[in-house]
Amino acid sequence: MSYKPTIGLEIHAELNTRSKMFCGCANNPNEKRPNINICPVCTAQPGTLPVANEEAVKKVIKTGFALNCKIATESKFDRKNYFYPDIPKGYQISQYDEPLCAKGYLVVDSGKIGITRIHLEEDTGSSIHPEGVDYSLVNFNRAGVPLMELVTEPDITSGKQASDFAKELQLIFKYLGVSDADMEKGLMRVEVNISVSKTKKFGTKVEIKNLNSFKVVQKAIDFEIARQIELLENKEVVVQETRGWHDKKEVTFSQRKKESAHDYRYFPEPDLLPMNFDRQYLQNIKSTLPELPESKRKRFKKEYGLEESQLEIFVTQKDLSEYFEKVISEFSEWLKVEKIRATKDIYKLVANYLLSDLAGLLEGKEFVEKDFKITPENFAEFIKMIYLQEINSKTAKMVLSEMFGTGVDPSSIVEGNNLGQMKDDGKLEKIIKEVIVKNPKAVADYKSGNKNAIQFLSGQVMALTRGTANPSSVQEMLKKILS
Ligand code: ADP
Ligand code: MG
Ligand code: ZN
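Predict the joint structure of the above. Result:
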């Protein structure tokens, strides 16, 4: 019988409220200057009192709704007591037995993962240990920033599934607008708990902290599963401990052994009132839920018939998908009036141009609509010109690049440069005959069975038309004339 891995995650996300959790200081994770966003409350001066940030409470409740949780109608804050240089009060205001949200779940590709609870607490400051000196420094800018903690049931069974779950969660946080959830910046932090067992009874769990990317989450879990199995196979035991991830060696290493459970001496925070939410209050928050990634996936597939790979790009890039839909909506009248049946072809063209040609122009940068010069109306007009074969795909590339750089509408670009697709067959025929006369060798090659010669000849024709002819009609006409 083989070992079954059991994994549970604890995920922290800094909420993107304007101010901190219990004072009016700015919540700005991008502030580089130390100890700028601080006040007597978040540095715990004697006599100061906290006031809860309602926006943060609402953001956690909103997240709870999105993750199918039961939302508490009564909740409170508790003190979690422990000493650390970067927690100025000597305790952290958190939630113990009455979290805002509990008993939810999230379905990812590979299964349904239970969510035990989501609660609200405050972040700590950060310590800096400069090299070569005998002191440490502390920066309280982050102290008191609202922090949401989500704990899962031990339902996860592989590194890949853990990473999928965390990725989907990050996307949901972004859709909800509750957290920027950037892992590199530490705005979203994932801790994993792992054990392996051959029986129904769970094995001893090990916790891994400070994993700063989805890749590392997956790698660390897979490494740890193998390490634990090897220990057990060698008749050794797994020690309950906290481990870290060594980026270079790609191994986990012991950080501290858990001799006994921490005694945080939790008790209700006496300086904050308990919270009561009536039905209407919760309903109002629920009504602000946007469309979530999973329903967008389904809708985009059904409405636009996009391919799987395209779907995922649109779902993960919210701005781009919103732009896509704005362009599509520009077509609604036209499609009705013109009675065009090829609606799906239009959707495909829009998607293809946004995801391939435009992506090339963006050079790997993410699409941000406010920095983008092409209006949805102009983009739709551009697609319409391609659809109606007013411009060929080569011209389209030039036009798009010009639009991208200047924001000028496509018809002005086409007219201004005389790029419209050559419609006059008489003129084209004349050019073709000219090319045939000038290239007797290629013509002879073609006649003796060298099919590549036709490519050369049509290339010559395209050049003479400055790319405005339709390549397939050029080939067709060439063959006709040559035969
Ligand atoms: P602790 O009190 O040690 O923090 P919790 O009961 O709060 O433990 O669980 C923390 C996380 O560990 C949760 O995500 C939970 O699902 C997970 N977990 C609990 N037991 C195990 C186990 N035996 N193996 C793997 N994960 C576990
Ligand atoms: Mg815990
Ligand atoms: Zn403050």
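The mean pLDDT is 92.
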